[in-house]
Amino acid sequence: MKNNCLFLLAVFLLMQCSSKEATVYTPVPYTLEVPTQFTNKLIAPIIPANNPLTEEGVALGKKLFFDRKLSGNNTQSCATCHSPQKSFTNNLQFNEGIQGILGTRNSMPLFNLAWNFDERFAWDGKEVGLEKQALEPVRNPIEMHANWETVAEKLQASPEYPDLFLQAFGSSEIDSVLITRALAQFERILISGNSKFDRYLNGETTLTPQELAGFNVFMDEAKGDCFHCHGSDNNPLWTDNKFHNNGLDSNFSDLGLGAVTGDTNDNGKFKSPSLRNLKFTAPYMHDGRFATLDEVIQHYSEGLQPSATIDPLMKKVNQGGVGLSLQEKANLKAFLLSLSDSNFVNNPAFRE
Amino acid sequence: MRVLLFLLTGLLTWSACSSPEEAQIANVAIRFSHNWENTPVSAADFNILKFTNDNGEMLSIERLRYLISNVILTNLDNETYELSPYQLVNLGDEEVSIESTQVPAGDYKLSFVFGFTDTENIDGGYPDLNTASFNVPAMLGGGYHFMQFDGKYTAQNLPPAGFNYHVISAVNTADPNNLIFQDTSFKVDLGVVSISATTEIEIKMNIAEWFKNPNTWDLNVLNTVLMPNFDAQILMHQNGKSVFSLGTVQE
Description:
By secondary structure, chain A is mostly helical.
């Protein structure tokens, strides 16, 4: 009788272990650390109901973000163009894909993406939703140039990934849907909210007179008038996440949003990037045409080019811009650099 | 016992029916529409120099967002029902509305405030409006835009130029050390509406009114940097009062 009982118990235990999927594993919810000024000033970030943040999902997403297996020849990862030390961009105007083909857009920095409420990503807004956006660079022939099925097979064959997917999503069957969900989870925790200006707003430090004067240039409708598109002390994203033609060209070699919508009224419009972390993210603009912040400020001050779709917020276009003085330019630059968040780029949690 | 139960049930039924107005709860919603002198305007009309103001300038609309607050119904007993504490209306959105609110059926005066009164114009106090980048710089008193109306205009065959018809609570900055503020929000009374069952009320904005009544607006003179322009804000305040009207009331 005793032996029979032991036998039954053994069979029972074997049945429990026979399928990993049958083992119920509940991922641990991930607690997003939202800066105080975000909580106070902004509405809640977007976390899709079908892809909640979990410790396991975020950790898996981070591992995938740095894994070169996601490229066609195992030479590039997401981090190749989106380096943590550079606020998740790099300092190249354009990047070479795995076959040495140069892209045509500057890689965008990655942070505070969960506060992009329209969920239109990329310079031209062609990707709707962070999960969907993550699909694109992997299969883009001039970027990572991989086949998603092949990528999934490579990960499936690795000794560690199946278990990590099982823990994160309850399934060890790896596919592009789960991979991009994990990547999106990691990207959503990339929060930058600890610049000098943030600390100033929180009463933890003071700004120099030059930085304060630069903030006034930024907020003055007759001077920089930057706040209409780039946030303010009350919108700490420092972007409106909308699309504007900021007067770079009179004729467009890159239609931007217009190529996505098919509407000629959108030609030459690109997403206004956040002004956080400019210290780390040169060169600037969608095509990286400006190597320095001085060039950027010079453009808005004196270099505006007229076109049918230039944003009406661009002032005195026929004169090239509002014509800031040298002192105002220097002040504005000092303020802009106060939005740089060294803690973000040095955060070990975001490193490989 | 059965008789008592019967009488009690009857009494309850009678009392429930004895006050029909209490039983009639209506759902009322607000829909916003926009026109240029009775020609409907939507986002599909953006970016086209197709409108002519009273001063003769051709203009286009590229962005039109405005804020209203204290959208209330007031009945004959002066009881008020709030339909919305505030609402940012964006003509660029496909459909703009205030969702259904339950009120007792009856006759009401419908009113709202264009913008925020000074008391409610709390700098940074509304996360959804901050997120929408609708703020006014602290150097102009802070708070929020009442309207952001951007577009291009052309006159005398000159190339189109941008305009930013931005309405805020006015501030006189002539003396930077002594800013003088003037609350330029204003109440809009749309008249009496009868509400029964499910009712949708249309609030109409005639965009052309911003340029004509009582002040003929000259875009060649007043086009950009109007936020710190106290006199321009007063003119906008005056012109805004004839912009809104009651549209259809559908049951």
